[in-house]
Specification:
This protein is mainly alpha-helical. The protein has five helices and two strands, in the order E-E-H-H-H-H-H.
């Protein structure tokens, strides 16, 4: 979501109605109990971690594993993960460069 709009400072992002209509949200009703349990088991690991900055979280093996478990359980191709991480890293770099200029 934060990569879809344009920055207004202090973490605020403007989004258009068109960009909001293109969002996809995972529907937990599509999961069976085994899939839910696998996601919850992975969530328990990351939920006990200290809050880290986003760059560290993107490199953390437990968070990577959690995200891939979610993708697997929803039947989403894992290549989406790499694409999303690359986009997030580029967005962070762009916003850091803007802030530092």
């Amino acid at each position: 979501m934060c990569g879809s709009g344009f920055a207004r400072g202090k973490g605020v992002v403007d989004l258009t109605a068109d960009s909001l209509q293109q969002f996809s949200i995972l529907n937990p009703d599509l999961l069976d109990i085994n899939q839910e349990n696998r996601i919850l088991k992975s969530w328990k690991i990351v939920s006990k971690k200290i809050v880290m900055n986003i760059k560290d979280q993107l490199e953390d093996k437990d968070w990577i594993s959690f995200n891939k478990v979610v993708l697997d359980e929803y039947g989403i191709d894992r290549s989406v993960y790499d694409q999303a991480m690359n986009s997030i890293k580029k967005m962070i770099d762009r916003r850091s460069n803007i802030r530092n200029s």
